[in-house]
Amino acid sequence: MAVYDTIGTTYGQTRRSDARIAAQIHAALGDARDVINVGAGAGSYEPESPRTVLAVEPSQVMIAQRPPLAAPAVSAVAEHLPVGDNAADAVMAILTVHHWTDLAAGIAELRRVARRRVVVLTWDQELFRERFWLIRDYFPQAAAFDDTRAVPMDRLAALLGGARQEPVPVPHDCTDGFGAAFWRRPQAYLDPEVRAGISMLAQLGDQVLASGLAALKDDLATGRWEQRHAELLALDSFDVGYRLLVAEV
């Protein structure tokens, strides 16, 4: 069973594309005429069909949440893409590489399938640990969990055959509820539905996170969180460590 068959049931509601992040991803895709989305989930950040010609996703729960007019989807994994060589101008993989069982094989497949460009959105775990208050101050278990699956930037760039890296700042009102989306809205992390849409929290479960949730709730009630993080409240966006890697093939 794919992991998102268990934790992905609410992604259609909590993980909607943010237009500003989408614009950066689409700019990285450039003038690619056709795109394959690998680890596609419910379809966030795909260019509209017919530009996106295929979505590849192992979870039927996620495929079922794709919009009716989205590109056709096939149940498959990144390590074994069911298409021929040079199948599309560009291949995209958005917040997915940390779930793959064989990173090298998956990246080799992206390069095999892309005629021109591969675009990957992921995060720099060292920066994420340092900058994101939620895992630094409240959920060290989540930081330790991500240490086991996060992909080092230099390794990913090397597997891609060289790639430029672009910071992806997170807007303060980000509409996509991924891990650090609520960096300026801390109360959101007390919402079970929000946590269900964040894999690093959903896979650990509330029992593991209970002490951190209690501490965050108390700090919000007493105003300690605002006192500690007053500088964040003046920011419109924040670089938490998300990175877009763009490789020419």
Q: What structural category do the secondary elements indicate? A: alpha/beta
CATH architecture: 3-Layer(aba) Sandwich
Mean pLDDT: 95
The largest sheet is: 7 strands, mixed
How big is the Rg? 18 Å
Q: Beta-strand level of the residues, as a percent range?
A: 15-25%
Structure notes:
The chain is an alpha/beta fold and 249 residues long. The protein has one domain: Rossmann fold. 38% of the residues lie in helices and 17% in strands. It is built from 13 helices and 9 strands. Helix 4 links the parallel strand 2 and strand 3. The longest helix is centred in the last third of the chain and has 17 residues. The mean pLDDT is 95.
